[in-house]
Structures
1.
Amino acid sequence: MQTDAYRLWFTRIVTFTISALAAASVVYWGLKIRGLPTPVVPSSALLEPTPAASSQAIARALGGGMTPAATPLTAAPAASRYNLIGVVAGRIQAGAALISVDGQDAKPVRVGTLVDNEMVLESVDGRQAVLTSSTGSSAKLTLEMPKLTQ
């Protein structure tokens, strides 16, 4: 009587696979029952302080030059108080601008919100922002970002 060689190999492979799975199961449950301690991570390693973003880095990311500049010289005297650092223009009546007031750090301002107590950001477009008076007067101020120098 002759045995089929392929059938013998099939039986050996199935037996080996079942034995390997049984051994892996024994090892898994043995480690689980033994209760190996999980490594303890100190809480200081979990909470790393994030550095505060500098206004100059945000300005460069929004397309501003290295030095902030104000509007053209034909603008109102109040224009010297405001420096446009960066603009994010979106859909109609949407967007934001980075504006520095009186040489302080630039702060993000959304369209329709107060820049300071005197001016409101009315709109943004391309590389410019339009400010209007919050006191009801018809004063408008257009701030433009500086030209990129290389």
2.
Amino acid sequence: MENAIEVKDLVTFYGERQILKGISFAIPSGTTTVIVGGSGCGKTTLLKHLIGLLRPASGSIHIHGNDIAAMNDVSLDEYRKKMGVLFQGAALLNSMTLAENVALPLKEHTKLKESVIDIIVRMKLDLVGLSGFGEFYPAQLSGGMKKRAGIARAMAMDPGVLYFDEPSAGLDPVTAAGLDELILRLHRVFKMTVVVVTHELPSIFTIADYVVMLDKGDVAFVGKLEDFKLSEKPIVRTFLERRPEEEVYSPDNYFKIITGA
């Protein structure tokens, strides 16, 4: 299977602290891949690299054959037009209606007529179950509806790769399940490559084809969801079984941490 994304020897520092330690992995085209791991493992940093918001200290990120880590700002701007992103808080502009939010990338990056943009906006809102809500403002919507509106905006330019940053964050279980079903439906209909950063086990089991697991800046697992579930690696079992890491939370280590001994 052809790879949509290939990350090789990716290294990142925040100041003197190394966040990503030369990680390498590939994401097959047309799959839904989840990036998982505990807090502070480097998931969000990796996502920032994939969408071109952060440049690595070294390494490469080939997306559909193009190394975005080596692109200049102009080329990177062109690349971003071919992807869609749902940020964790939806990142809608509160002063704009939903229709205006979805229309924004089309107005900024295309020369389409206003009438054509209006049709596309209605189609995208209908696609995520928000038909008839175009004139509503973000403050008038529930958290789940804001996420759906964010997806509609991310889909506005018909991206080849769609990124989700913690899509279920802050949602109740029923709303989160509905969002998972929407992600599945978009993937089936448009056959795009979907990358989801999440730590929610129900979502992982529902939407994932492939799993990339990070641990302390390294890659702990890469492979199919079925193999992830059956993996005997201690770090994977700890994550799947929701167990605290014994070496961190043992009474002796806890005493050392709080006393500095």
